[in-house]
Design a protein that fits this description.
11 strands, 47% strand, mainly beta, 126 residues, single chain, 4-stranded antiparallel β-sheet
């Protein structure tokens, strides 16, 4: 029903910045709640950030608060993750996820989201 494509990953030094993009197909972009997750080698996938359909409600994992910013441009069918002050601990594959459920639930868990992008790799060197 919707396809998500991430881009913007790469290799940066500690303290650097990257801006990830996730572009969705379709004409119903505003129906989707959107989130970013990440998965580091040898670790489980973890929640990073969430933005509501209208872009008003925003949540971040404690580990990225003050450094990462999530925002969406519904006219471009795109959600972004601006990452500043990057640390080696941020090294991971980053995934965009979408949720169009009509029922309420926690935004922090993978099970909430039905649609996922292929991921984009972020590597932060020391």
């Amino acid at each position: 029903q919707v396809q998500l494509v991430e881009s913007g990953g790469g290799l940066v030094q500690t303290g650097g910045s990257l801006r990830l993009s996730c572009t969705a197909s379709g004409r119903t972009f505003t129906n989707y709640r959107l989130a970013w997750f990440r998965q580091a080698p040898g670790k489980e996938r973890e929640f990073v950030a969430y933005v509501s359909r209208g872009g008003i409600a925003i949540y971040y994992a404690d580990s990225v608060k003050g450094r990462f910013t999530i925002f969406r441009d519904n006219a471009k069918n795109t959600v972004y993750l601006q990452m500043n002050s990057l640390k080696p601990e941020d090294t991971a594959a980053y995934y965009c996820a979408a949720d169009d459920k009509t029922t309420s639930g926690s935004v922090y868990y993978e099970s909430r989201y039905d649609y996922w992008g292929q991921g984009t790799q972020v590597t932060v060197s020391s």
